[in-house]
Known about the structure:
This protein is of the alpha/beta class.
Amino acid sequence: MSTKVIIVGGVAGGATAAARLRRISEDVEIILVERGEHISFANCGLPYYIGETIKERSKLLVQTVKGMSKRFNLDIRNLSEVLSIDPQNNKLTIKNLRNGEEYEETYDKLLLSPGARPMVPPILGLSENMSAFTLRNIPDTDKIKTYVDSNKPKKAVVIGGGFIGIEMAENLVDRGIDVTLVEMAKQIMAPIDVEMASILHTHLKEKGVHLVLENGVQAFTEQGKKVLLSDGTEIETDMTILSIGVRPENELAKSAGLELGERGGIIVNEYLQTSKEDIYAVGDAIEVVDYINGKKAMIPLAGPANRQGRIAANNMMGKKEKYQGTMGTSIAKVFDLTVAATGNNEKTLKHLGITYEVVHIHPSSHAGYYPGAAPIALKLIFDKSTGKIFGAQAVGADGVDKRIDVIATAIKGELTVEDLTNLELSYAPPFSSAKDPVNMAGYVASNIMDGELEHIQWHEVDQIVSDGGVLIDVREPMEREFGFIKGSTNIPLNDLRDRLSELPKDQTIYVSCQVGLRGYLASQILKNRGYKVKNVDGGWKTYSSVLGGNLAIDGKTTTNDRRDTEMKSTIEIKVDRVVDVRGLTCPMPIIELKKGIESLDNGQVLELHVTDKGALNDLPTWSEKAGHTLLKTVQEGKIIKFWIEKK
């Protein structure tokens, strides 16, 4: 007698399990019950169809009911809802949503893959809001796209700065809509830490998104045309996207008496069995074990759901394969940047009381002399005593995915930060550097473990200076024109040996540079001369990403969201000189810029091409302070172009 398996829910977990079951056995009877019309669709691609990056709706449909039924010999019952489960009798009640018919079906094994639904808080006026949407499936997508196509909204508010919120903000901007993004926390993208998220904050603003942090939605008025925030701010909008987060679809499991976790996730063992041995569960509805810290967690991601579906299918057919936990490796596109993370962030480790160390580096995605190199902000979190890697985060225009995937693999292989230095990774100038950024992060972390390097973090700097600490900035003087840490003394690296007499030997000397490398070199000079010294990890670039520049501006100018001076006409800009600093590392972009400006006459225009805007983050302020006019800023792929009129 063949085994009968019923799967509740399709998409990542359920559809994967169904296909795997058939590959294992031609005899097993497989019934897939799906409440919606579509059983397998690209839910991660939905925002990009709304934004019209994906042109054809049909491309979102990974498998059709007819196609999957035929290929895998499945009994697929879409537009059917499971109303209840009777675990004692291995039976469930199903309702055909087409005709309202209810019937019972028995099973030998049952797999729950119901997913998670968007959280919709009881906001005052929401029920009267005719233009508020959530995004989970194809029907949601159709509603949003139809509304945008038909009503042509000029303004939109996106509530929530997670994956869906960020992707929807970008795609609505691509449709020509003025977007305000509201996030209750002090940062967007919860998987990363605030100094990494701050890079994204700046980029969103440069792209014209109005970013509102540490503020929530209190009410909707005028049938959703106005959004009232917690601080009393009122925002006009033509549509609202609710992307506050998700909660597990656990009603079936709860009514069947299955054990649930604190956050409502279905509790499963290492074989993905629920508290009833014939019932398995996978995907966004289950509580998983955090691979890094071993604690229970809710981590709704497509990759783990697919893997769980395969493992559950194996185990329902008699295997004993263990699910090893979820690392939370994730990635997202934020306009021209990529953000990715794996493992635990600082917030999680602090909450759990786990001691850790952090390094920040800012390498290029590939060799700087080959065109198109872009900076990567890479953060590595590890155990200083053992070298165990707790997690990593990266933001950049290129090469982010590769580095995070390598580190995720290293974590899975139980490699240490010292092992990262010995990884032999592929290299050619268009793709990487002879020392890959992953190797570089390993070198810095190993230096800390060996006691060769001591450092402080960006958030410790201001207090140290306030308490009378000695902080030297070893960058070139012209670099400080684009911002510096208040209270620091400028002693360029090449002058340091000749100016040691200016530094006290009875105090710790704190050293800062642009990204940390010259600070490390200065630290070694001072350490070998008998000084107690600590480097500012990540340098000015990490510090200023959160705390911003500090250049004072006198007077007022009219600027747009990019901080360019507003042009009163559309007359084409006549360029007198082009300066290309793409791929150059600090301090060369600033040196070349200043040379270019000095070579011009009053009223002439310089066109500047960069890939690393970090060194020039305060270019608008510097231009105003120096009396020049920043006419325009344009990003074309990885290249950022500035037009500056000399005055």
